[in-house]
């Protein structure tokens, strides 16, 4: 089934942020506890600096990013200058959504789980289980 995109309006940055917040709250509590103070920030695209640092050429090539001090360099005595943040990139996610049959909330859940999961060293099996628990 092909969606007639002429009849739909993509969510604005604010609407997308609300969706992301709802999706995050559906994730299992034990998983969310790993990132109690994480901020979820929605932007249309990653910055050129982010793309360059990751060696990504297209701004559509990155759906999300977990930004924090690398766990291997953290110390309990360190005070982080920046809060932990997950960036969700609205336009690349919407582009992916338009090309696939997944629900937008499921795509956002996938990006959130993988950004958090990779940061904390979870296996793909762990992340798949967490995503299935949060499925809408």
TrEMBL record:
Keywords: Hydrolase, Protease. InterPro entries: Zincin_1, Zincin_1_sf. GO terms for molecular function: peptidase activity. One of its GO terms (biological process) is proteolysis. This is Zn-dependent protease.
């Amino acid at each position: 089934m092909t969606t007639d995109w002429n009849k739909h309006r993509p969510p604005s940055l604010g609407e997308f942020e609300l969706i992301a917040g709802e999706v995050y709250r559906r994730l299992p509590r034990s998983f969310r506890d790993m990132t109690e103070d994480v901020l979820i920030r929605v932007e249309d695209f990653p910055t050129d600096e982010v793309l360059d640092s990751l060696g990504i050429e297209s701004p559509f090539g990155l759906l999300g990013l977990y930004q924090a001090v690398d766990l291997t360099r953290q110390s309990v005595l360190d005070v982080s200058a920046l809060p932990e943040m997950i960036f969700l990139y609205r336009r690349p996610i919407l582009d992916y959504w338009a090309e696939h049959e997944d629900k937008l909330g499921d795509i956002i859940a996938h990006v959130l789980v993988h950004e958090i999961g990779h940061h904390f060293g979870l296996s793909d099996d762990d992340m798949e289980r967490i995503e299935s628990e949060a499925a809408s």
